[in-house]
Amino acid sequence: MSSSPLVIMALTSFLVLPGGSLQALKPDTVTDLLSRDEFQQAEVLLDRLPRTAESVAQRGEIEYRKGNFDRANSLYTEALRMDARAARAHFGLGKLAMAKLRAKQAVQEMTRAIQLDPKEPLYRLYGSEAWALEKNYAEQRKQLEEYVRLNPSDPDRLAEAKAGLEMLKALGTDVAVVSAPENPAPIRFRKSLNLIFSSVMINGQGPYEFAVDTGATQTVLSEKLADQIGLKPVTTTIMHGVGGGGKIDTKLYSVKEIGLGDVKIKNVPVGTFNDPLVTQLADGILGTAILADFIITVNYPANQLEISRKRTPNPAGEALPARYRGRGHRHFAQYGGEPGRE
């Protein structure tokens, strides 16, 4: 007697375990859906679940991916009020700190997330970026190696981590070394399309027109410029958007020197882009993370970047780079123990 098609279909929805028992296939979790950027489905599933510290932190992750950073911050903070050991909430706050180039805070939050859940690969990967912001490249390498060792089931990010290790090996120990006078001269810029552009020298050649991005952690060149000045790629990787969604293949290069006015940064890792529209606007995008040793004031009325060395933090509060708008300025400012305002 032949088997009924309905019976066969029913059997395919079960998994035969070694012990001979049958177990229903595990449905998608919120984490699974977030890993595929399926935010709407994740929200539907969260609506059916109890409101716990974990679920609130996951809602924060959804808002973060959407670019709603203030809302994400509120949800991560709420999750920690519910449970101070919510690793995902610390992870989220660490990512928000990185987006604002707050290196010390990012490291603190990522360290706590890793302590609470040492087997979560993603905490290691983002933790490596936090340590890179603080220019602790030995710790960055350690976290990347640990990420690879944990063998995550994400081929794109695994390739990203391996490329990072290749890049660190090529760069050596002295990465993004900054030299500048005590009081660098202001750097002129022009405004266009709600962006600011300034002249940048690459390996003594130029000047080239770069967009200045105060929220970017990496500097990127157009592939056209990389070819023009004869750069040779060290490796290739996949670059993700700030929220984690969207990705593009990119080549990674080692640049001997980037010059911005009086400031020189040596031995800099850079990525590339090949977007025709962006290439028409700029030769590259300067991520101000490489200027983390300075306070940068974007003085719109005067059309100039004003760069000064950071003061030693006072006991009342830590000096944190923070962006805010006011009186025609958008700049990195210092607050004594007060969070920066967006």
Q: What features would you describe in this structure?
A:
The chain is 39% helix and 26% strand. The chain has twelve helices and 16 strands. Strands 6-7-12-8-11-10 form a six-stranded mixed β-barrel. Helix 3 packs antiparallel against helix 4, helix 4 runs parallel beside helix 6 (87-99) and helix 6 (87-99) runs parallel beside helix 8 (121-133). The chain has 342 residues and is α+β, with helices and mostly antiparallel strands. The chain folds into two domains: 30-153, Tetratricopeptide repeat domain (Serine Threonine Protein Phosphatase 5, Tetratricopeptide repeat); 177-308, Cathepsin D, subunit A, domain 1 (Beta Barrel), CATH 2.40.70. It has helices at 5-11, 30-35, 39-48, 53-66, 69-82, 87-99, 103-116, 121-133, 137-149, 155-171, 223-228, 276-281; strands spanning 14-16, 22-24, 177-179, 187-188, 190-192, 195-202, 205-213, 220-222, 235-240, 247-260, 263-273, 284-287, 294-299, 304-309, 323-326, 329-332. The longest helix is centred in the middle third of the chain and has 17 residues, at 155-171. It is globular and about 60 Å long.
Number of helices: 12
Can you identify the CATH superfamily of the largest domain?
Acid Proteases
CATH topology of the largest domain: Cathepsin D, subunit A, domain 1
Number of structural domains: 2
Strands of the widest sheet, in order across it, are: 6-7-12-8-11-10
Number of beta-strand segments: 16
Provide the CATH top-level class of the largest domain. Answer: Mainly Beta
Largest beta-sheet details: 6 strands, mixed, barrel
End-to-end separation? 71 Å
- Poorly predicted sequence stretches spanning 5 or more consecutive residues: 1-26, 241-245, 312-342
Strand content: 25-35%
Helix content: 25-40%
Mean pLDDT: 78
* Rg over C-alpha atoms, rounded to the nearest angstrom: 23 Å
